[in-house]
């Protein structure tokens, strides 16, 4: 609240005072054409002019929304402002406490396409490629910034940059489009390899399994907890991680939408309506606790190209997760507004489902735009829809708005109690608060909660809060494994190996025998994942257990992966012992042994960072080298170069490669029209700084941008074309190119 001072007349004083009141004006956005599932209502939480191209949000300890914005992304079909420092991270506030944002203030500005953010460890973790930064927060201002990772992401196309920064139950931060996870321990940041997951957006369920997707596969996930199957660096699992959870990729838009490859067979139906997902992103496991029980741990998925959000139901079998679309012929949320671009979803502190709507005409990167889409965008003027952005909220019909509790002001007892809250966001934040504060006085209460079998979800939170406080012990884990439900036992087993010593080997043998007798598939799976480690410590005690598990699940590949994952060496002996009972496992163990000898590790342990995708690299080189003559849209420039758009010479990739490498002289015919420019196009072969990979990348971009059939040439073929000289020894003629194509 702002106040004014005045010594003038009373009437003037009233006028002045009224002019100094804080404004709570909230933009009024109509949601005509939006339809949400019966029993729910859709609300606008924030919108333009407070927002421009939001891409992700997170909530702080007071429940305020922090938003990363990329207004420089795809302002036109060339992505001209892509490198402009116009991005920001802003704090959205609801000062009149009515549930709608009425004020915004900038926390960080002058950013180049900030991609992700997370409120963790009392500060803000955020990415501005190529860096991952952490800043402390003082009076809503950034202080003491540190670089967490200097190679977090390649610069350029955000479609292929790590994102997510999601804190899981295990106290690690995970990303989509990445094979690394992050954590801060005693003030020191740790970076560790993990399985590569998805493209845009990541989520976790109450157990801690991860969910993700890519453009054309609306829901992927891991059947097991993170890193359980990658402990053996010389084995790469494929059955338990990065799995398609449903083969049903159908979508049900309520109107014809503009999509990138709508000309391709099967993309659109006879009414020009999208048939299957082509730009799916941002899956979210609903854990808010405010929706009807049937919605608990449903997975909602953004389909921005279809202006909709879909809902999936999950079934857990104990060693796998199966998804099924909740509806056939309809979606959870649809819109006829082609500006509606849901790109991220969040569970909110109030139990609602929050939607980050970029609300932009074009959200596909310019490197990927097909000629078909460019024409459609121009006709529909979607490229003019740029200065918008919204955050929407889905809540149960009649759900009352409740002010968010301030976590930073809570004591230890209050935070422990919140580990039992129905809202997963609340539980997660309470866990992280206790760890960040290093609340050692919470240990006793957490140990009591760990034994509370009435609330198995809270037990898992208590276990990992103790882990984060460095308060685990062998006895504690063994007790949790024995007395808890199968899910708690699984987590206790995952955490157990570092605490197993020669002194407690006999106790461990008894524990393993007791757990085997439960005959539970979940327990057996996680027991399988550590048994190799136990065999390495005492073969005589634990090899029989490995053999028993191996024989019991001989036809389940995920168990083979679990058994191999725990092996830390000595494969030859294990292979012999296992061979008769499970030849498939023996074969996998043999493969692991060979790779160990050759030091060929799982690629996730060799990869240091992602490389830029081919079309984005090719686009950059095209704009630097080719666009000045051929035009940024490939339409050609009169007197300089013929068009590339629709050219038969672009459609033939080998011919295109020869032109790029060696150049072209004389007249050339494109789509029946002859171009006699009296100029020779120089080849790039004379530039020693341009590699075969660079040539391949240019071809990848040009065929995508200017033909209806994207193609590539491999490096070996590029080298062959490099050695295929024209008769003149300088540039090719059109006739020579045509003769080459006839071979």
UniProtKB/TrEMBL annotation:
The keyword Zinc does not apply. It comes from the Bacteria. Residues 613-706 form the Cytochrome c domain. The keyword rRNA-binding does not apply. It holds the Pfam family Cytochrom_C. Keywords: Heme, Iron, Metal-binding. This is Cytochrome c, mono-and diheme variants. It comes from Zobellia uliginosa.
